[in-house]
Design brief:
By secondary structure, the protein is α+β, with helices and mostly antiparallel strands. The protein has 3 domains: 2-286, Rossmann fold (3-Layer(aba) Sandwich), CATH 3.40.50; 295-400, Immunoglobulin-like, CATH 2.60.40; 415-562, Jelly Rolls, CATH 2.60.120. 19% of the residues lie in helices and 34% in strands. The protein has 11 helices and 30 strands. A 9-stranded mixed β-sheet has the order 1-2-3-5-4-6-7-8-9, with helices on both faces. Strands 10, 11, 12, 15 and 16 form a 5-stranded antiparallel β-sheet that branches. Strands 13, 14, 17, 18 and 19 form a 5-stranded antiparallel β-sheet that branches. It starts with a helix and ends with a strand.
Length: 575
């Protein structure tokens, strides 16, 4: 064991370099201290072994901190790769991920964190970061790696870490903190929380000095500037827990083999193909049974007469199915407008290993966040790092297109939307293929079921600091007065002292509300509502639709369009 410790510390010094000193984790103690481990139960089903285990993570106030975990592996396994799975929401250990990864040929473990000892939702203790909640929770999970290393089923040279949400926070942190980890991946989260997060451990901080301590102790991105470890971050562009700039900056600063997958318009959830992309990352770097995902260059933007052309190159052995240029229009600032901002995807051309396409310029003076996506035949998305541009900076003085963007995310009520609604838990209504106008099917709200409410609500994406126009087609089983309301959403965490400082928020914002009332009957009716911008800094909007009395009604389509400023002759397109 002592030889192993010496080798690990030597490896760590090489990986991190002389400029890095670990500030809060005692890696030697994490690896060396006795586990006093017990197997509480063991069962075998369909060739998969599941064990409930218990071990000591550390001695705290003279008492051992006992950790409960669940381990899964194939029956008869010997020296196979292993994965530490970090639970979403810091939830208790369950069998789902250990069993799932065991079926894929791994040893996998997840644990229940000791929330009864350390308050999980309190601010990170910047006065004593070695004794902070997130520090102890990370130690508990790194001690789980120590447990895995004691198992004869595990190949100790092939250990990965992955996690979702809070688990992605910890997997990013642990991948760089623990030298035993050979690769990692994260659903949603990265580091650089100072660029935007909803984590209370950060938003409950009070001073910029607190942020400085956070950045050089617990922030997951910190150590990846010094240690090379293959890592994949998948980011939902509209995530409400981890804002896109924080994940992108983590990717940018990481010095190891890395990939970024940005999924436009998704929020804390992914299509099944992206889930599989994350899981398969371990097959590439631990099993070497799959080809590495394609890599991409940085994005280049150039003027071509009165157009902006974006281009990037890629390399790799996976055949590309499609390429897209993704553009988000509107003011870009930290801590504002990331949850509700819209993203528009335009097809790009693939010629050899070069991708090119045109950026639609609706206003030469408007901020644009631009990145490229390539998708291979397995559905794996690889993104370029987003860049912030203005067309006027490239010499364009006029718009070159006026596009009637629909900022409502679910533009088509088709089967794909139906599947995505189910994945995201939207079940207040049913899809009705028999009653429709122009859509694939309508959405029907039936107040006579178990839920008597006649109201339904939807999130609306927007272009920050712009006016918008709502259009909605409705129909009801009998004449009824319908009320349509578009209500502004307050900037998130607006009561947080540290968020106010980082956002430079010094005044209260009046939340705008726009509404109309109209009678709807058994014929499809178009209702339109103007939503003018009135100098308010809001996160975005929500749409509320309700009937004044219980009645079945249908929605055929919802359109939320930005109102662009006029800036010269335009070439009309549609989207």
């Amino acid at each position: 064991m002592k030889t192993m410790i010496f080798l690990l510390m030597a490896i760590a010094s090489i990986l991190y370099g002389q400029q890095f000193t670990e500030p809060i984790f005692n890696i030697q103690a994490i690896v060396e201290q006795p586990l006093d481990a017990k197997i509480l139960s063991s069962s075998v089903s369909d060739g998969i072994v599941l064990q409930e285990v218990e071990f000591t993570s550390e001695i705290y106030q003279n008492n051992p901190v006992r950790i409960y975990g669940i381990v899964g592996f194939p029956e008869g396994a010997k020296k196979i790769p292993g994965i530490l799975w970090c639970q979403p929401g810091m939830a208790p250990a369950n069998r789902y991920m250990p069993e799932m990864f065991a079926k894929r040929g791994y040893v996998c473990m997840c644990v229940t964190l000791p929330h009864k000892i350390w308050n999980p939702w309190a601010a990170f203790n910047t006065k004593s970061p070695s004794d902070a909640n997130l520090t102890h929770f990370a130690i508990a999970q790194m001690r789980a790696i120590t447990y895995l290393c004691s198992m004869p089923e595990l190949d100790t040279e092939k250990i990965g870490v992955g996690g979702s949400s809070y688990g992605g926070f910890f997997s990013t942190l642990i991948a760089a903190a623990d030298p035993r980890i050979k690769c990692g991946m994260s659903f949603f989260s990265g580091g650089n929380m100072a660029l935007g997060t909803h984590l209370p451990q950060f938003t409950n901080l009070e001073t910029l000095q607190d942020v400085d301590v956070w950045n050089r102790t617990i922030d997951p991105a910190f150590r990846l500037k010094f240690r090379k470890v293959p890592f994949l971050w998948a980011a939902a562009s509209n995530d409400n827990w981890f804002y896109l700039p924080s994940v992108v900056k983590t990717y940018h600063d990481s010095i190891g083999e890395k990939r970024l997958a940005i999924v436009p318009l998704w929020e804390h959830g992914f299509p099944e193909e992206v889930d599989e992309q994350l899981f398969s990352w371990f097959d590439i770097y631990l099993k070497q049974t799959k080809k590495p995902y394609n890599s991409v260059s940085s994005l280049t933007v150039k003027r071509n007469k009165n157009t902006l052309q974006a281009s990037w190159s890629f390399s790799g052995d996976n055949k590309i199915k499609k390429a897209e240029i993704v553009v988000s229009y509107g003011k870009i600032e930290p801590w504002k407008w990331w949850i509700h901002r819209d993203y528009v995807s335009f097809p790009a051309k693939i010629q050899g290993n070069l991708v090119t396409g045109e950026i639609c310029v609706v206003d030469p003076n408007i901020d644009m966040l631009v990145f490229g996506n390539i998708t291979d035949e397995s559905g794996a998305i690889i993104s370029t790092e987003p860049i912030q541009i203005k067309a006027v900076d490239y010499g364009l003085k006029k718009a070159n297109c006026t596009t009637k963007f629909n900022l409502f995310q679910w533009k088509c009520f088709d089967e794909e939307t139906k599947k995505n609604f189910a994945r995201m838990g939207f079940n207040r209504f049913v899809f009705d293929p028999d009653v429709k106008k122009d859509n694939f099917q309508s959405i029907r709200l039936d107040p006579y079921g178990s839920k008597k409410t006649t109201e339904i609500s939807f999130k609306l994406h927007h272009v920050p600091l712009h006016s918008h126009k709502l259009k909605i087609w409705l129909k009801a089983e009998k004449p009824v007065e319908m009320v349509i309301t578009v209500k502004g959403v307050e900037l998130p965490d607006s009561k947080s002292q540290i968020v106010k400082l980082l956002r430079k928020q010094d005044t209260e914002v009046k939340i705008p509300v726009y509404w109309l009332s109209a009678t709807v009957d058994n014929n499809w009716k178009l209702l339109e509502l103007d939503c003018p911008y009135q100098n308010e800094e809001i996160e975005g909007y929500y749409l509320f639709i309700s009937a004044k009395e219980p009645v079945v009604y249908w929605i055929d389509s919802i359109v939320f369009e930005p109102v662009w400023k006029k800036s010269g002759n335009v070439r009309k397109t549609t989207k």
